[in-house]
User: Fold this.
Amino acid sequence: MLKIKVILALLAINFLFSMKASSQDQATTVSSILDNPVEGQEVTLQGKIIGQQSDKTDYIFTDGTDQIAIEIQSDDFNYSSDIDVQISGVVDFESQHPEEVARDPTSENIQINVNQLQIIK
Assistant:
């Protein structure tokens, strides 16, 4: 009887880990990031850069589900809203008090620090 319980427990643990892995493989959207932001989460998104903010490295990105601020630290990037891009980066809480943002996130406090940008043709 103990062997059966151990086997069932191991199967349950395996199932939970496989569910977590499969949920991490799901496509990420701007909307899902803003609904459940996790600082430090690595994300990859496809969409368009639709505007530049006052800082030369800050832009507005949309994937059609919502909009989010992104930061691109590259002197080689020339902004154009007519191109489709794929970005990869890290979710960042832009605040002096990230613990407050974690409790009550707003889209104004969340951005993606882009570490890779690819133009999609």
